[in-house]
Amino acid sequence: MSLYNISHEYCDADALLAEDTSASSLEHDIFYKICPGQYKHLNGTDVKLGQPRCGDGSNFSFLVSRPPESKSSGRDKILIELSGGGACWDALTCLMQKMWLSYPQEWIGAVVGTSCTGWSMLGNTMLCGKTIGDTDFSEYHNVMIPYCTQDVHMGDEPSTNYGAMHVGGHNLYRTLQWVFDNFPDPSHIFITGCSAGATPFPVVYDLINSHYSANGKDVTINGIADSPVFITPSYFLKNGIQHWNVETIMSMIGFDFESFKNDESFPNAVIDYVLDRSKETDSWGYVTHNADAVSLLYYSFMSGGTIFGGDSGLGKRSKLGGIVPPRRRLNDDMQSQWWMQMNNSMSLAMNDHKNFHSLVIEGADHCTFSLNVPIQYNGFEEWASLIVQESGGIEVTSNTTSNEESVSLSIESPLINSSIMASSPSVLGISWNSTLESGLPGPPDVQANSAAHRHELTDSGLLLFLFMATMRCIMYYR
């Protein structure tokens, strides 16, 4: 007899029902759309984190693809990817992010029914078709968690006074429950996410690690967070995060959110708490750009800055109904403050935990999907290969030099646990100084720089982000 009443009223017609679908029933190398049901206790009350939806009330589903049959042998391996896409926490920010509160049907529709092998043959950099070091991700079951709640996948607030349903914690938890039910004894799990999908990485790790450890399973769980936005200014703690109600999911990992809810050290407290409970053989990686335009923009908003200038926080409205941003740049103090906090947070984590590793890339880029930007840089795969390796555990030392010249790093001496030297946003532990063959500013060889390497944030990354946001607003209001 079931302990719950489960309904599927909020499932699309083209989605398989999670409670009726086993992983073994799916064909190999095909992406499926799977919808978790709505859970209620027999007395009619809601089950904790049991009502998955999107922020505008639309239906939520996750995606699953089994590895090709030729690569399916032995214990299961699982790749879990969390999508990104901004965040909002009040009427104004959620108005600006309104399109991101809907289920992303466009890209979901392009993926469902296709194969990772097919995407790889077309030159796409989907991680499920990549090999990094000795780890072949085409051997992994791929679970993709779309993002449509604007709460970094952790919310439990279905009723806000501005209309958004911040229930990302429900979507995440019900997806993981399906994983737990269908993969009782995996050998390896790799977690990654982009931006808002990278931010909850410690929580996702702990939910997975706690489940399998409690069931006596020895599972290697590694992961890389790509462009996480995890700095929490005091303004955001007082005026933003409480609208998400992340306390529910924090309580499920045993973290004392009440003690840190007004403390800017909250993100590092979560990292410390989870890493103290982690297996030392599990490896974490954080990769970011030192002048990430998107992270800087959100840091400004989360610090109480206006969105497009002016007393109202909005810029001028164009004739088409979109928003025309003024030409401005974040001030140097804001950039320095953001980088100092990012640098300090990563340095503290590296100093306190030998299985935490970070990589800083020079520039204003930001991810669009898990690892798709850093994977284009020569040197990234050398660094990442030691984190994704299936043998577990990393023992490396940083490469140093006694003069002021940069030295190229080889796989024998990657800069993983070196401190990130920074007193301003311009001084890096790792810098990238070449260009891609396409002529775009970017990648090349990893270098450890022993001297200050000056870098100024250009307007290009920020303006590109603002342009994209404006165009989406125009499309919405037409």
Oligomer: single chain
Averaged pLDDT: 80
Main pleated sheet: 9 strands, mixed
Straight-line N-to-C gap: 51 Å
Q: Approximately how much beta-strand content do the residues carry?
A: 5-15%
Spans of at least 5 consecutive residues whose pLDDT stays below 50 are: 308-328, 396-478
Fold and architecture overview:
The protein has 478 residues and is of the alpha/beta class. It has one domain (4-477). Helix content is 28%, strand content 15%. Strands 2-3-5-9-6-10-11-12-15 form a 9-stranded mixed beta sheet, sandwiched between helices. The protein has a 3-stranded antiparallel beta sheet with strand order 16-18-17, with no helix packed on it. Mean pLDDT is 80; it is low at 308-328 and 396-478. It comes from Cyclotella atomus.
